[in-house]
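Narrative of activities, Objective 1.

The group set out to show that a structural description can be obtained from nothing but a protein's sequence at a throughput compatible with the screening campaign. Below is one input-output pair from the validation batch, recorded exactly as produced.
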Amino acid sequence: MNVYWLEQTQADVPVDNRWLGASEAARLNAMRFAKRRADWRLGRWTAKRAVAVYMNAPGDPKALAGIEIRAAPSGAPEAFVANKPAAVTISLSHRTGIAICAVAQSGAALGCDLETIEPRSDTFVADYFTDEEQALIARASAANRPRLVTLLWSGKESALKALHEGLRLDTRGVMVSAIGASCGGEGQGCVENPDLTFEPSRDLDTWRPLDVRCTGGQVFHGWWQSTGDLVRTLVANPPPVPPILFKIAPA
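Output recorded for this entry:
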């Protein structure tokens, strides 16, 4: 299955709100805190742009206002066009002024996550990671540990989004297996890297595979990458090929 993704920053978001639908504008106006407003606008902008490109729809403000991103009862984002559910599945994540949106065919189980690499305590690892994940972390060098812990955590977040559960489930109920292979874009194949060093990715088209197994029996296949101080993960069912980046001109 093909999965596409788009990344945007606060600098990409227009100053005005002409690209918001009426109900979205009303919701924005009800938000009191500037950071919450900025994060929400960034997420909605990124999702609308991704859905428009996926559907080969125009990307002007009027057309984007006709695409609404609503929250399902589970909290997962859903896209509507002309007040009807769009034939797409989306997942959304944002951190530190950056947002990503993954888009796939309707009916797919899909989750994506964006995390900042930062040190996490032994207590955090013991509380939120399975025994197998803790053993993998113990193999990592001190230099690679923060990246690996962030990767495993992000994989859990993506899987929980695909399950439409979020952090309502025990994070130890999903186990991430990160595999040391470097994979290029569509059709470029993979190069094995059995030492599991979890080095940064070459670019935004380079992904490495991961699997997530849930105690409920669900299995998700997915991908991860790390550039700079960021880790991105994406999981889906049916199994996805390496995610395809939407490369679009600024609005």
